[in-house]
Design goal:
single chain, alpha+beta, Thrombin, subunit H, 6 strands, rod-shaped
Length: 181
């Protein structure tokens, strides 16, 4: 058995602890709390090498961005979606169409505009436009390939600044309509 003096034992223990503290990290990097990426330097540009990419010892370092908040896209509802709340069976669709309102009364010119049907039911379509449509206006709806070519009557209108939100009901059955009953 080896017997050492007290002073030697204390010195060895302190030396051992000093080396442990020196070599071990105090804490592990925590990227969730904003620990910067250790492979990039703040403000430095990457250094190109002859192979492909960066030199292993000359990588640039950048810090992580600041945390922030932003409104979720799902929380942003369109004005057409607000009108669609009154049509429980409405399904989101995105169908580009062109509608035409013929000038029925004397002095009222016909209106023609391109828009996108945003919601649809088996009997109605909901869309936004800039034309000043009114309740009971009859519209001709056509898409670019001709698979949708039918008349519809305006059954709901909401006026917004710079836009008119419209719900129109088909006057005839549409055999190839995407939303089935």
């Amino acid at each position: 058995m080896l017997i050492l003096p007290f002073r030697t034992v204390v010195s060895l223990v302190l030396l051992y602890l000093h080396n442990r503290v020196f070599w071990l990290p105090k804490a592990l990097p925590n990227r969730e709390e904003g620990e910067p990426n250790r492979t990039y330097k703040v403000g430095a540009e990457p250094v190109r090498t002859e192979s492909a990419g960066l030199k292993s010892r000359e990588r640039a370092r950048i810090a992580l961005g600041q945390t922030g908040t932003e409104k979720a896209r799902a929380a942003q509802t369109s004005t057409v979606a607000e009108l669609a709340r009154f049509f429980p069976e409405a399904t989101p669709v995105r169908i580009p169409v062109q509608f035409t309102r013929a000038g029925g009364e004397a002095g009222i010119p016909g209106i023609e505009e391109r828009t996108v049907i945003e919601f649809g039911t088996s009997r109605e379509v909901l869309f936004s436009c800039t034309a000043p449509l009114e309740f009971a206006d009859v519209l001709r709806l056509r898409n670019s390939d001709g698979s949708l070519d039918t008349d519809a009557s305006v059954v709901a209108v909401q006026y917004q600044p710079g836009a008119t939100i419209v719900a129109a009901r088909f006057l005839n059955s549409v055999p190839n309509w995407i939303v089935k009953p």
